[in-house]
Amino acid sequence: MSMFRVIGDPWRELNEMISQLPGDLGHAFFGRANQYPRVNIWENETGMVLEAEIAGVDPAKLDISAEGNTLTIRGEKTSGGMKPYEFQRQFALPFELSEADIKATVKDGLLTLAIPRKAATKRKIAIETL
After folding, report:
1. Which of 96, 86, 45, 38 lies closest to 66, judged by CA?
2. Are residues 37 and 57 in contact, defined by beta-carbon separation less than 8 angstroms?
3. pTM of the model
4. What average pLDDT does range 35-61 have in this prediction?
5. Measured distance CA(106)–CA(108) in Å, rounded
6. Whole-number Å distance between alpha carbons of 95 and 75
7. Residue 50's pLDDT band (boundaries 50, 70, 90)?
8. What is the mean predicted confidence (pLDDT) over 2-29?
9. In Å, how far from its chain's centre is CA 28?
10. Does position 9 have pLDDT exceeding 70, yes or no?
11. Contacts (Cβ under 8 Å, ≥6 apart) of 80
C-alpha cells in the first residue's frame, strides 16, 4: 500500500492556486511558458508546414519573418481577464528560407505557414589562369 494518495489532478489544482494570486504575480514566479502558442511542424515534399495555435491573437498584430534558416513568429495575445503579453517563437529550419515565398493563413485561431525550400541557385565559378 502506498504512503501517498493522490486525489484529483495536482496540476489543475496548482494552476487554480496560481490564478488566484493577485495580478500577474503567479506568472512572475512561474513564467508564461505554457502561454506561448503550441506549434506543430512537419516536413513535406516542398518544404515544411508549421501550425501554431493563436486563439486570442489579432492576426494584424502578428509579425512573421525569415532570415537565413531561422523563422520568427512574434505577436501579442490577450486572454480572458489577463493583461496582454507579447510572445516570440523562433525555429531553426534545416534549409535556407525565402521569406517572399512563405504563405501564411489564419483560420479559427490556427496559423498555418507553408514554408517552401529556397530554390537552389547554381552558378558557374570562373577559373583564373595564372
Report:
1. 96
2. yes
3. 0.65
4. 88
5. 7
6. 24
7. very high
8. 59
9. 21
10. no
11. none
